Amino acid sequence: MNMSSYCPMSSQDGGSSLVYASKNGHVEVVDKLLQHGATVDMHDEDGWSSLVYASQNGHVEVVDKLLQHGATVDLQSKDGASSLMAASQNGHVEVNGHVEVVDKLLQHGATVDLHDEVRSP
ANK repeats at which positions (predicted)? Predict the structure, then answer.
């Protein structure tokens, strides 16, 4: 079976297979894509990377896999959102993994005082 016929490498919004798999928490797919050379810091047209989406959605295993493959922890989207900001936004929901994601990002050197476009001084 040819995966590319079922999962396009990019779409009209600029998302990639890795971005979609990360956003939806499909750790096995993320692992396969990375093993086959997917760009770990690929992002959609808004600049949201796989790590930002996985962090926002509390996908701890995906975040861990992306970080193991060298994802840039402080990569910011066009509006300035970072993975730590995305995870912190939902950090009160412990059952969804956000607190654990925040912890992993901090362990990998995430900058705690980055600003997004809305909150910049």
Answer: 13-45, 46-78, 79-117
Mean pLDDT score, 55-69: 95
pTM of the model: 0.81
**Position of tokens 């922890």?**
73
| Number of neighbours of residue 73 by Cβ within 10 angstroms | 21
Residue with tokens 């909150």: 119
Q: Exposed (0-12), middle (13-18) or buried (19+): which is 81, by Cβ within 10 Å? A: buried
Contact 69, 40 (CB under 8 A): yes
Q: Minimal CA–CA distance to 30: which of 64, 55, 73, 72? A: 64
Q: Mind listing the pLDDT tens digit for each residue in 6-34?
A: 344 444 445 689 999 999 999 999 999 99
Domain ranges of the chain: 13-107
User: What's the CA gap between 18 and 40, in Å, rounded?
Assistant: 8
Top CATH class, 13-107: mainly alpha
Of 100, 112, 34, 117, which is closest to residue 50 (Cα–Cα)? 34
